[in-house]
Amino acid sequence: MSSPKLSLAALGPERLKGIRRGVEKESLRATAAGDLALTPHPAALGSALTHPHITTDYSESQLELITGVHATPETCLEELMRIHQFTYRALGEEMLWVSSMPCRLPADETIPIGRYGSSNVGRAKSVYRMGLAHRYGRRMQTISGIHYNWSMPGLGSDQYFALIRNFRRHAFLLLYLFGASPALCSSFVAGRDHGLQPLADGTMYMPHGTSLRMGRLGYQSEAQARLAVSYNGLEGYAASLQEALTRPYPAYESIGIMNPGGEYNQLATSLLQIENEFYGTIRPKRVIFPGERPLHALRERGVEYVEVRLLDLDPFVPVGIKAQTMRLLDIFLLHCLLADSPPDTPQEIAQIGRNQHLTAAFGREPGLRLERGTQEVALADWAAELLAQFDPVAAALDAAHRTSDYTDALRSAHALVEQPDLLPSARVLAVMQQDFGNSFLDFTLAHSQHTRMKLLALPFGGAQQAHYAMLSRESLRHQREIEAGDSLPFEHYRQQYISPERLGLTRAAVTPALAAV
């Protein structure tokens, strides 16, 4: 599907200054010894169900810190810093694990699944996570990352999908530049075929890896690999997900909805239980109404922003991401929007997947070649070509903001391509070797402890502490109200939530009591 062609000159400074971004940052809670914290979500952090900025992702031990929407990278990072400061003050002796790959993990079945209270929506969130455990194992769900939410005023769904197609084609560049997970704790791959090399006792790695999180050991699924979801437009994308959300999948039918003891195994037996189960490097998104399914919101009102999902935590940065990275993302996304974006094909979708896996596992290998159409091209050459194409975008953003920060970020990216030893993935391995005997756990534990001390030492005023404490109290009150207001039996709730009508095929009324899982 063709989309209205935009030009950089036609956008103008005001549209460029209208770009908005927000961050969702996941981190495991770890003990002082580098083990997964098995304690409940700290009470001082409020309700993981209803807190606007502090929740959990898969595990009870996996925090997710969420900013609002911001006009500049600096204000976004300031809010993310404040959320971190409040969070650390509630953790006691625990710390946030600063790597995307997890700390020392216990046996798979003892990794705690997120708990959200006794309400129907809270139970549904936990049952969904139980389904993930049955389908993929719990360890895979303990990987953490950063999601970057991005929008620009005046864009329609076709333009966002054109951006998404180009993003997927060129996502290897971001994995190369910002991947920071070339090694992991061997507890993560215990008993699995993994293809990694031993580096030291308890540490496995890929010598030229960039992001094991985004490779074959990370957010991958043989079942989902069969999904060739097209991004040629909202209608085709929605139809692809509709099929995966409604058609029973034999392997998951065999798991069943409930076990013989009457406990729920999963929300549904379809290939995807809910939309969020679909793993992708980028998603089209829309803010949803209470009780609304994400796919219904997209169908009814179109794409509102995109969610970039392939960023590793930067272990060298206290909050996991820095302003320079965010500026390069702005440049990258704007270029993806403005460049020609032909329709994708099943063959190209498969090629994109192969390029992702090659870059994740071998990205820094000298001379590594990726597939581009019917040709092969050196990753470094393709990266340099793309960065050269970014020059006018960076200049336009600098002109709009009256700064040189975007050009500086682009210059830094050029340096990383020219000197791969400066890449975050290379720096992780170098510091592990120099200072920590090639131990992933020792390296990440030391950086996690340093980050904890640094953030606790920074000023955090009484007004800020009081503000976030109030949000925690309000979230707990809101959870109690939801629980008190439930009237449907949970099974009735579950069946309503997963019904095809809720996905936007019909204009059936949305039950206000139902909330998003």
UniProtKB/TrEMBL annotation:
Keywords: ATP-binding, Glutathione biosynthesis, Ligase, Nucleotide-binding
Catalytic activity as recorded in UniProt: L-cysteine + L-glutamate + ATP = gamma-L-glutamyl-L-cysteine + ADP + phosphate + H(+)
Short name of any one Pfam family annotated for the protein: Glu_cys_ligase
Domain Glutamate--cysteine ligase intervals: 14-357
Biological pathway: Sulfur metabolism; glutathione biosynthesis; glutathione from L-cysteine and L-glutamate: step 1/2
Molecular-function annotations in GO: ATP binding; glutamate-cysteine ligase activity; metal ion binding
The organism's place on the tree of life at top rank: Bacteria
InterPro entries given in the database record: Gln_synth/guanido_kin_cat_dom, Glu_cys_ligase, Glut_cys_ligase
Keyword tRNA-binding found: no
GO CC entries: cytosol
GO biological process: glutathione biosynthetic process
Enzyme Commission numbers on file: 6.3.2.2
Stretch forming the signal peptide: none
NCBIfam families xref list: glu_cys_ligase
Similarity field: Belongs to the glutamate--cysteine ligase type 1 family. Type 1 subfamily.
UniProt-listed PANTHER family: GLUTAMATE--CYSTEINE LIGASE (PTHR38761:SF1)
HAMAP family in the cross-refs: Glu_cys_ligase (MF_00578)
UniProt protein name: Glutamate--cysteine ligase
Species: Ramlibacter tataouinensis (strain ATCC BAA-407 / DSM 14655 / LMG 21543 / TTB310)
The gene coding this protein: gshA
